[in-house]
Amino acid sequence: MEDSPDFLSREEKEFVVTVQEKFHEELAARKAQGKAYPCLLGSVALARILRAAEGNVEKACEWFQALLRTLSDPATDELVQDALSRFGNDSHIINASMLPHHEAISDFYHAELCAPLLSPDGDMVMYLPLVDLDRDGILEHLDWDHWVKFSRACTVMQCAALDFLSRKNQRFARMILIVDLEGMSMEGVVHRTFARAHRRDVIDSFQQRVAAEIVTSVYVVNVPWAIANLFSLCKTFIPAKFLKKVRVLSSNALKDSSFVENCGGQEQLSELFASRKGLVSSNSQRHESQRLAFLDVWPDEEELQHIQRLREKFAEQLQVREANGTAWPCFMSDVAMARVLRGNEGYLSEATNWFQKFLTKMDKWGVDEIARDVTAKMAQAERGSLTMLPHAEEVGRHFRCVFSAPRLTPAGDVIWYLPLSDFDRQGLVDQVEWKHWEEFVRAMIVLRAAEAQKLSQAQHRLAKCVTILDLHGSGIGTTGVPKVESFDEPNQKNMKFMRQIVIDILGPVYVLNAPWVAVKAFNWFKSLVPERFSRKVILLDGDGTYDDDFVEMVGEAQLKHLLATRIGLLSGETDADAGECSIGAGESLNKCRDLKCGETIAWSFTVESGDADGWLGVSDIVFSAKMMFHPDFNREEVEEEGQGTLALEETTVQASNGQVTGKYTAARDGVVTLCWSNEHSRMRTKGVQFQIDLQR
């Protein structure tokens, strides 16, 4: 094995010997095959690994073992050999023209991989103008595998160049990266789809496994004011070891003497800045399907062509499913395929990657069995409900929500009302078998997809689910929702299931009753981030009743109904059909029950006399019963605002009236809300005994 250079420290030299002894067989075999690449497996590279592990020998050995596993892949080994053959061994200079597929990629990417002059310390300088990284063009027009090979080969060449410089100058050479944001908008800086794909296929699966401690500093220059301020805010949350490598400079970067000196001087920087080509502005012609990514319109002819291409890539698997009856429309219809495309911002390569993983997870999670049950139930119902789910009664004692509100939004989207005061996570852990909770949640997710498919077919548009998250009574403060570790960590598996099985079904999330400070902070933060990241979460003051747009979307009567469904399971309340209740001054008792066509609900109650009746008059309660119908999509007419709600009874009942009874038989599916209101009283609590009977 090679001797360690003199500039390595004693600890680093000892680590080199440790690795060479511990992995002697693997390294000897590679040397015999001509694959003991010095820039990745040599003594300098090993010392870099120890530095990256902050001197922890055990962690460094684990990292090296992972590197060997990465190189054991024949395709990776072939790529490394090809990249090193293109680089040569007599210079540190590298440029993009050396890399595979450069000719095709040059229309969408330009960067100075190694500036002519080194830093005063002898480090390489790389210049990346973001305006010359046309991420849309790469995703739309290039074979993604070509970009991955190009990027991985670049990393290998950088390791080789730095290894050459280190040995030549007898010091650890690293790289200074200049990221130039000139010409980029706030929206253009962040590209979620490209970033996700690049991190998955280049950074996480390759760069972080083969390149250790090769970057000494990152300068982000020509930064818009908003981003600079956002970075200053985020510094609080970034680990110091990462933060010390990053400096954010405004447009006067050339006036920063330390930056100019470290990056090769004024003349070199001016030439680098002058090399910008503006590939993004000249090439970026976003595909129509990307424009549709946040819309709900039915797939047009062009998008259907992309869907057909997606189908062709999975023709064999889809044919098998068609034959055995498991080509569920909510996952494999054209509408579902459109969701896959739009959920990946119209990029076919990313849609293909997502759908391939989806098919694998379908088998892993046993989704076909869930879909079979859910699809059959949705075929018989206008709208999804929690009663369709397995273990609904058991789970319902600790988790309640309005899965699908009776009325849709004016656009035709379903509304999901989720009050966190009725999400008793500790109760679920203590009282519900965890497997039952998992089965409940997974069925709920598939049910959401099946319902979205049914609504979409009826409306000839891509219907989505608008979520209303109510924080009232949840215990949330400025630091967030109280943690229940025994629930939160295991439940991540359910969240993973949702991400892997459904896509582009959830619409905006409206958050009610958030702490005032959180609302203000969030609204300020939204002004600094791209719209596509902020539009899905909307924090409203109070219960949303003062926001005209929100009330119009939900419907005033329905919003009151949804807020009335809160029980308060976290505080020990239950949604019993019978009992005694003390209704505080200015408050009310509400009971909501789902009714299907032909079912009957009956009620009886008495108002109890109070101690203060002799002074303040007989105790009284304002009782009302209302039926809110589910819309019938088989009807041609469209219900206007205010229709679809039937007042069954509204009366003032005194203690002297004795028992009051009533009943109603539903002519259509819907929800009955029984309300005992004491809102008219500002001084007295009233007692009520009640009984509710459902005849199904």
Automatic annotation (TrEMBL):
SUPFAM superfamilies given in the database record: CRAL/TRIO domain (SSF52087), Supernatant protein factor (SPF), C-terminal domain (SSF101576)
Domain CRAL-TRIO: 101-281, 391-574
Family matches, as Pfam families: CRAL_TRIO
CDD domains for the chain: SEC14
GO cellular component, one term: cytoplasm
GOLD domain span: 547-694
Official protein name in the record: CRAL-TRIO domain-containing protein
Organism whose genome encodes this protein: Effrenium voratum
